[in-house]
Each structure stands twice: as structure tokens, then as C-alpha cells.
Design goal:
The chain has 107 residues and is of the alpha+beta class. It has a single domain (2-77, 91-100), classed as Poly(a)-polymerase, middle domain, CATH 1.10.1410. 33% of the residues lie in helices and 9% in strands. It has three helices and three strands; from the N terminus they run αβββαα. The protein has a three-stranded mixed sheet, with no helix packed on it. α1 (2-8) crosses α2 (61-84). It is elongated.
Amino acid sequence: MDFLYFFGMFSRNVFDPRQMRISVRGSGVYIKRERCCSIDPIHIDDPLFPTNNVGRNCFRIHQCIKAFSEAYSILENELASLSNDDDKCPRPSSRLLPKIIPNIDLS
């Protein structure tokens, strides 16, 4: 949930790929991105060569952010509905993955 919230809430300025750079060195950090001469859609530091951007060829980053946001909303609604159940009857098993990824078949 934290991952989906952080990377999916572009509209709430949690993660903005135009403003932040991702580094996986050490325990991982998010650094203000210097945008002066880069038009790359997202900047992810190469752990072996920090000056190399492994996110350079990323495309459709905003569709990924939208998918993370939608997945977060679905899970948040499902959790809210679980906590709103007043009766103590067991709930029929419900699969979450097909709700998050509609085209997946788990039969």
C-alpha cells in the first residue's frame, strides 16, 4: 500500500518524476532532480555508474503512475468495506488481484 501510495499519488505531489531522482545506492534515496539539460521521463541512478540514468528509455511513466493510483484506490476501498462489515459472519472469499489487474484470469 505504501509503494502504491508513494508512486501513485502524482496529483498529491508525493512522487513527481519530473522533480525527483531515484538512487538505489545505500538504503535508497529520493533526490531533487536537476532538470537543466535532461528531458528523460524519469531519472533512476545506475548503481554501478551513478552518472548513467537507467530510466532514460522509460516510456508511459504517467500510465504507470495512474495504474499505481488506481490500484491504491481499489485496495483502500476494499479495506474500508472490510472494516465497515458490522456482522461477524465470514465474508465469502474475494480475489483482489483481478480487481487491480482486470484482464488477469486466476482460474
